[in-house]
Design goal:
mainly alpha, single chain, elongated, 188 residues
């Protein structure tokens, strides 16, 4: 048996609803797992902060204290986004007609848009944090509005791509559920 792979390009013509479902589940679980791994970054960050002992009055008045670590927001986005992709993928798989049904062009792009949107947001978070710290030292905790807005804006761009991909995928899943409900199609 061939090992499952992540497809980063849109599916070819002839792609079925089941293919879209499988790809959304694979990509979603991958993103969830990356979010799980990213969850260890705050622990390392807290250790570093405790050792450095740099908890001054500016930091304590800063709203980012609630998030504590720059990776926390993206951790939640990856976990939630990944679970959302897997859930929609399960809808595609469960409600797929028993006959081979091709999907629309935009629907073929949905798994790619979701996966690449979340990946871009996560990479921007990590690389942007390091790069912007070189330009505006300690921009996250001081805070430096220009650096923070650029950093958050890049993450938002990736999340917008993900949301559009989910919108397309949810529209397709909703259509499948409606067709299944009207035809009385039963799996089992």
């Amino acid at each position: 048996p061939r090992a499952p792979t992540l497809r980063l390009l849109p599916m070819q013509s002839g792609t079925t609803t089941a293919d879209i479902g499988k790809q959304l589940i694979r990509s979603g679980l991958t993103q969830f797992f990356l979010g799980f791994l990213l969850g260890f970054v705050p622990i390392l960050h807290y250790f570093h902060g405790a050792v450095a002992g740099d908890v001054g009055p500016t930091f304590l008045k800063n709203m980012t204290l609630w998030w504590g670590c720059p990776a926390v927001l993206m951790e939640y986005v990856l976990k939630t986004g990944g679970l959302g992709m897997a859930a929609v993928g399960l809808c595609y798989t469960v409600f797929a007609p028993s006959t081979r049904t091709e999907v629309s062009g935009p629907e073929q792009w949905a798994p790619t848009l979701c996966h690449c949107g979340l990946t871009f947001a996560a990479v921007w978070m990590a690389v942007g944090y390091v790069a912007f710290n070189r330009i505006w030292p300690n921009f996250y905790f001081e805070p430096v509005p220009t650096g923070k807005n650029m950093w958050l804006g890049g993450q938002l761009a990736g999340i917008v791509v993900y949301v559009y991909g989910m919108y397309v995928a949810l529209s397709g899943a909703k259509a499948l559920v409606n067709v299944t409900g009207k035809t009385g199609h039963q799996r089992g």
